[in-house]
Amino acid sequence: MKIGIPRALVYYYYYPIWVSMFEELGAEVVISDETSKNMINEGIKLTVQEICVPIKIFNSHVLNLIEKGVDYVFIPRLVSIKKYETFCPKFLGLPDMAKNVFKDFEDRIISPKISSSTDNITNLSSYKEVMKKLNIPSGKMKSALKVASKKFEEFRNLSLKGFTISEILEGKTSGKKPFKNTAPDTVNIGLLGYVYNVYDNFISMDIISKFRSLGVNVVTFDMLSEKEIYKHMGHLNKHLFWTFSNKILGAGMYFLNEDQFDGIIHITAFGCGPDSYIGKMMELDSDKKHKPFLTIRVDEHTGESHLVTRVEAFTDMLKRKKMSQVGRVSV
């Protein structure tokens, strides 16, 4: 039995759980190909133009899996991982959208309702539909989820050490230390963005590698603990409704208020509603803190040369500022 998992959206955060769970259940896990321009073009044909590019990409990945001949595609309905917060509506309605777009495959879409009190979404109650659809005994599912939980904790520990999700995915962590430039004039940048905007190299155009080639240290929200993420959000009257948006906003506040960060970059997909809140709040607060802030808005038409130019210019500005500060200290 082949279970397809789209390499899109929160796959980049929850793949350790879902891949290991299905493997423990004895299924062959098939991951869709990495995003490409051709895939995007096919996804666009299936999607309304007004929706954000991550959803267009998601449809491309589902189509890719169907063409690979999988027996089922796993598209969970992500509801909540924190009390009083929920996921963006696109996650709540994702299975319905997929079943409407891929009508001939509707009965072979597995869409459990994921609701948890923590990031570790391995609670048995969230996978009842998987058990029902694949005729899995509860004991076998419990054992699979126990392994999946351990894999997720290992994954998160590596992220907290400073490894990127891409490095963890590619198995480039064994016996190695995370990238860290320790020169006194090194620029440190806080990179904001949902995991699917940062780690899908078609969207971000492999922005972290571009920064590292310039000797820049980059920290993303997934490298921060819950304590660090919520450390500087106490002044807000209320948090946002959406959990991952709060993670991004909290990381942004952390980058703003911690002195080791020289600047902040926010990668956002054109048409993202929650990001419109985050971007404006960060823009206003960065002015108050006098910390450079750059928004990179991407869609399916964004060109790499445009991104590289902006990244290099922003980095050069921060380096000049850092060097002048280092010079003043040494005098």
Provide the descriptors you would attach to this structure in a database record:
331 residues; alpha/beta; Rossmann fold; 2 domains; 4-stranded parallel beta sheet; 10 strands; 50% helix
Number of helical regions? 15
Spatial strand order of the main sheet: 2-1-3-5
Described by the principal axes of the CA atoms, the overall outline is globular
Alpha-beta classification: alpha/beta
The percentage helix is 40-55%
Main beta-sheet strand count, sense and barrel state: 4 strands, parallel
Q: How much of the polypeptide forms β-strand, as a percent range?
A: 5-15%
Order of helices and strands: EHEHHEEHHEEHHHEHHHEHHEHEH
Average residue pLDDT: 90
CATH topology of the largest domain: Rossmann fold
End-to-end separation in angstroms reads 68 Å
Number of spatially distinct domains: 2
CATH architecture of the largest domain: 3-Layer(aba) Sandwich
Contiguous low-pLDDT stretches (5 residues minimum) are: none
What is the CATH class name of the largest domain?
Alpha Beta
> Roughly how many Å is the radius of gyration?
20 Å
Written description of the protein model:
50% of the residues lie in helices and 13% in strands. The chain has 331 residues and is an alpha/beta fold. It folds into two domains: 158 residues, Rossmann fold; 154 residues, Rossmann fold, CATH 3.40.50. The strands form three sheets. A four-stranded parallel β-sheet has the order 2-1-3-5, sandwiched between helices. It has a four-stranded parallel β-sheet with strand order 8-7-9-10, sandwiched between helices. A two-stranded parallel ribbon has the order 4-6. The mean pLDDT is 90.
